Amino acid sequence: MHNHATADEIFTEVTRQNPRISRGTVYRNLNKLTQAGKIKKVSVSEGADRFDHMKIEHYHIRCENCRKLSAVDMDWINGLDWNIKDKKGFMLTGYDIIFRGLCPNCRTDNQDTIPLLIFRRV
User: Which residues contact 75 (CB under 8 A, 6 or more apart)?
Assistant: First the structure.
């Protein structure tokens, strides 16, 4: 599946081809595939984790209405984590940046006039 699916969505799809498979088997295999580096787990606040077939580092955008998660077409900012200065004793193990917006299916004519935030690199 190439749509940033949740474990439940993957389970539903797998049971169409193999109705006797258990939810636990699907979850265990997703975790094994993640640990082996075959897929990536994307942790999403206020929602279920998603699984991503794209293993390269990239950013995501999530629709604020339907919660669809999509890859963002932009260059990865190398070294962003090198700029983290922590005085509280944390050891950085990773980060996720998820942009928010409205997907084309959820936008209405009124929302097309809402000014967009412009992000620029410094």
Answer: none
What are the pLDDT digits (tens) for 20-46?
A: 999 999 999 999 999 998 998 888 777
Interatomic CA distance for residues 114 and 111, integer angstroms:
5
pTM value is 0.63
Query: Cα separations (Å) of 105 from 51, 63, 92?
Result: 22, 10, 36
State the DSSP string of 17-55.
H-TT--HHHHHHHHHHHHHTTSSEEE--TTS--EEES--
Rounded Cα gap, residues 84 and 119, in angstroms: 19
